[in-house]
Design brief:
Elements (H helix, E strand, L loop, with lengths): L16 H12 L6 H8 L3 H21 L5 E13 L15 H7 L7 H13 L4 E6 L8 H10 L4 H16 L2 E5 L5 H7 L5 E3 L8 H4 L13 H13 L4 E7 L5 H17 L2 E3 L2 E3 L2 E8 L16 H15 L5 E2 L10 H6 L4 E5 L16 H10 L3 E5 L4 H5 L1 H4 L2 H10 L18 H9 L44 H11 L6 H8 L3 H18 L4 E4 L1 E5 L17 H13 L4 E5 L10 H12 L4 E4 L2 H11 L2 H12 L14 H7 L6 H13 L4 E7 L5 H18 L2 E8 L15 H16 L5 E2 L3 H4 L1 H7 L6 E4 L20 H10 L4 E3 L10
Parallel strand pairs: 1-2, 1-10, 1-11, 2-3, 3-4, 4-5, 5-8, 8-9, 12-19, 12-20, 13-14, 14-15, 16-17, 17-18
Antiparallel strand pairs: 6-7
């Protein structure tokens, strides 16, 4: 079938400066805007565009003041749970959905199990999350026999039935609140979910029938994208008094008139279902998302342009003016570059939506979330305070008697500030509130393996719609977690649920697993990887420079040496070749002035101002500190001022003095290394972390090393990744288990690293230079998600970089990911989105 790429939308022929001025004037006086007004405003350019933004921002500010939240932009701290990636629709821009065949190739289940869900949710709970976003494909059982078979096998009438079961289980077990996003829902299904999910959502996307009905357009062949069907869902949610999230998708081929019509249709549905509350009339649409289209590889729309920035910003502003001052207008922060945030806030946005400190955006895997500290800082730089909310917006929390089902009012209240309706204090992992305990006792959910049919009445304030589905039936014989599991499988699943629950002996048992037990361990670790950091395999384009080679006078006989003049040429060459990172490390010779560390950084920054400088191990920093008299903090300040962005967390083998004395006595003492890396983190320099294994260390010493890294991370939050690096023979390569194959040694190390560090250090990097490309593919199926760097040799002084002669071109890395049917993504040093 021929795919029609969306054309660039242009202002309608009737647009005129006078018409835009008239629409702006009506908006300024608070008049109700119709579709024609909205379309004219969407076409604003130049000075009128600036007036549009100013007006939208002023309307937003007035609404925040009236709501008692002046100067506040909100977000929800969430866990993203992709309950199933099967779907009956065929949207042309989607990478979220899999076919059953793709699931088999990825070794991925049709549906996440309750144990897998709880394993991820409990980690999010420990990180202060309060929302569990349940996202999935529309009604997969109506297209795929495999989905129907899974549901039948586990005793569920439908996918929605399973969503209800999981939502109830999440709140009963953790106290977190589910936001259900299962696509099109009937009124009965909304009633089924209301007692277990305090909010729900479904994007309208667009009212354009052309995009749905015309062959080749983005929604053709997707029954759930019928605009009339989706508008009925939004109306049904209003009738059922469900706090509902919806919105539009900008740039998928719709016209400006379509865009205007979509916004007005949402407003009209919202107003049709207003009820009187303490703060006046309140409709059920709790937030309107204005989302910009981003083209994704391996989709029918991969060649389509992204939504044009100013058109997108205009849509945000018009959404604000159409919806009025009290509506929450949401813009996803990971789908825009930080430099664009100012425009979005000027346009009247007041909510960033859900942002996860743990899980990837599984719908947009190529766009990582901003770090929450960075988001707070950027929001403050724009003149606003970032505040956390619950999955239900504050207005609905404060009027819980109208909008929140009786079964959920206790759990919602347990997480809410009673004065503002925003999120209260962070939830404590393992803490059971009285409200959560009441929900658990009154609405306990059966496990998949132990369900009996009981028929309690729903606690909803709606009339009983008839016989309850299996997922709404209480079970007084719920199996204890892991009751049917033994040995390594039981330990692995317990570790997936709570890495801190295992003692050292149990972790050692996992590290020494062999045979089928090792397969189970690796599969469990890979599931944790999949459901936290996501499916993407990442790589940074970089080159190395070994600072030990710096010489005041060049040594023509040694190609590894270089001068300060060479530094600029090396950096500029790397940048021209596409590198975004230059990694510099190594002690300067004692014959060289220690200020050379700073001179290298300045030379890199002057020659390639856009490149990220990842430079100097704790041992190198200590050398600068001691030889210059700057001291540790002074040296770090000087390095930052010279242009260093992040630091390598290398220069240590195992965090154990016994091991250091035996294999690396010249390394920095362990306590001094820890002092150095924590000082770097406190100075705002994030770092990698490593473990060199396979020499004289014991399994227990490896576990102690990982625990110490996790403790440092808990204190500073500065580690971006962990790299388990095998030491090659004959100096090392000693197996923990006699006779175990080297690849199995690596599989066990990667899998245990993923499990023990999960919820702490997010990324596990596979050192392809040590294990080789083929083994790297296997280790990416054992919990790994990153391939490190390309290690470009460059055209200037290639031998001046450690590991020169080894390169992993981007095309080769992408091919390795493709063998696993996983997406590939170039990343920045700190795992952000590459923009060059």
């Amino acid at each position: 079938m021929t795919v029609v790429s969306p054309s660039v939308t242009t202002p309608p022929a009737v647009a005129s400066p006078a018409a835009v001025d008239a629409a702006l004037a009506r908006a300024a006086t608070g008049e109700r805007l119709d579709v024609a007004d909205a379309a004219e405003l969407l076409a604003s350019t130049g000075e009128r565009f600036e007036r549009l933004l100013a007006l939208a921002g002023a309307v937003r500010d007035a609404g925040l003041a009236a709501s008692g939240r002046p100067g506040v932009i909100t977000y929800s701290r969430k866990v993203f749970v992709p309950l199933t990636t099967l779907c009956r629709d065929r949207c042309h821009y989607c990478v979220f959905v899999d076919t059953p065949g793709q699931l088999l190739k990825k070794h991925k289940p049709a549906y996440m199990s309750p144990e897998q869900v709880l394993a991820v949710v409990r980690q999010g709970q420990a990180m202060g999350c309060k929302e569990v976003l349940l996202t999935l494909g529309d009604r997969p059982e109506e297209r795929w026999p495999e989905a129907r078979a899974w549901l039948d096998e586990h005793g569920f009438a439908s996918t929605i039935d399973y969503v209800a079961h999981i939502a109830r289980l999440v709140t009963a077990e953790t106290g977190l609140l589910a936001h259900a996003n299962p696509g099109v829902m009937s009124a009965d299904e909304l009633r089924t979910l209301r007692p277990v999910a305090p909010s729900m959502g479904m994007m309208l996307e667009t009212t354009s029938r052309r995009l749905f009905e015309e062959p080749g357009q983005v929604h053709f062949g997707s029954p759930d994208k019928d605009p009339a069907v989706r508008l009925e869902v939004i109306d049904a949610a209003g009738r059922e008094r469900v706090p509902f999230t919806t919105g539009i998708l900008v740039g998928i081929g719709e016209t400006l008139h379509d865009r205007a019509e979509s916004l007005v249709a949402i407003r009209d549905a919202h107003e049709r279902h207003q009820v009187d509350g303490a703060a006046g009339p309140q409709g059920h649409v709790q937030e309107v998302i204005v989302q910009n289209f981003r083209a994704k590889p391996r989709t029918a729309m991969q060649g389509a342009p992204d939504a044009e920035l100013l058109e997108y910003v205009a849509a945000v502003a018009v959404a604000r003016l159409v919806m009025g001052p009290r509506m929450r207008i949401q813009v996803p922060p990971n789908l825009s570059d930080p430099a664009e945030f100012g425009l979005l806030v000027r346009a009247g946005a007041n909510d960033w939506g859900g942002v996860s400190p743990l899980t990837a955006d599984h719908v947009n895997p190529e766009r990582p979330w901003p770090h929450l500290d960075d988001l707070a800082r950027m929001t403050a730089d724009l003149g606003f305070e970032l505040r956390e909310r619950l999955t239900a917006q504050p207005e609905f929390v404060l009027d819980a008697g109208t909008w929140i089902d009786p079964a959920l009012r206790g759990p919602v209240a347990a997480l809410a500030d009673p004065e503002t309706g925003l999120a209260a204090r962070p939830h404590v992992a393992g803490e059971v509130s009285p409200e959560q305990d009441a929900f658990r006792l009154g609405r306990s959910a059966p496990s998949l393996n132990d369900r009996e049919e009981v028929d309690p009445r729903s606690s909803s304030d709606h009339a009983d719609p008839g016989p309850r589905s299996l997922s709404e039936r209480s079970d007084t014989k719920r199996a204890a977690p892991h009751a049917r599991l033994t040995g390594v499988r039981r330990l692995a699943e317990a570790a997936a649920a709570d890495p801190l629950a295992l003692d050292d002996t149990q972790w050692v048992a996992l590290l020494e697993a062999t045979g089928d037990d090792l397969d189970v361990l690796a599969a469990t670790a890979d599931d944790v990887r999949r459901y936290t950091v996501g499916e993407a395999v990442t790589l940074v384009v970089n080159r190395n420079l070994t600072s030990s080679g710096l010489r005041t006078a060049p040594d023509t006989a040694d190609p590894a040496t270089f001068t300060l003049d060479d530094v600029g040429a090396i950096a500029a060459d790397a940048w021209e070749l596409g590198a975004t990172e230059l990694c510099v490390q190594g002690l300067l010779p004692t014959s060289e002035d220690p200020s050379g560390y700073l001179d290298i950084a300045r030379g890199v920054r002057a020659a390639a101002p856009g490149i990220h400088l990842h430079a100097y191990r704790p041992q190198d920093v200590r050398d600068l500190a001691d030889r210059t008299g700057l001291g540790l903090d002074g040296a770090l300040t000087a390095l930052r001022d010279a242009g260093v962005d992040t630091v390598p967390g290398t220069g240590v083998k195992v965090l154990n003095e016994r091991v250091r004395a035996l294999v690396a006595p010249a390394d920095l003492e362990i306590d001094r290394w820890v002092e150095g890396i924590t000082a770097a983190h406190r100075a705002g320099l994030r770092s990698t972390s490593v473990l060199f294994y396979g020499h004289v260390e014991t399994a227990a010493e490896r576990i102690a090393h990982l625990r110490r890294l996790r403790a440092i991370q808990s204190e500073t939050g500065g580690f971006t990744e962990f790299v388990p690096i095998p030491l090659p023979g004959p100096a090392g390569g000693v197996p923990l288990v006699a006779g175990r194959e080297p690849l199995d040694e690596h599989r066990a190390m990667v899998a245990v690293s993923r499990l023990l560090l999960s919820g702490s250090i997010p990324h596990v990097q596979i050192p392809w230079t040590r294990v080789g490309r083929e083994a790297s593919v296997v280790l990416l199926q054992s919990g790994g998600d990153d391939l490190g760097g390309t290690l470009l040799d460059g055209r200037v002084k290639p031998a001046a970089g450690i590991e020169h002669g080894l390169e992993l071109p981007v095309t080769d890395a992408a091919a390795l990911a493709a063998r696993l049917f996983r997406p590939f993504r170039r990343r920045t040093t700190t795992y952000g989105q590459v923009t060059r």
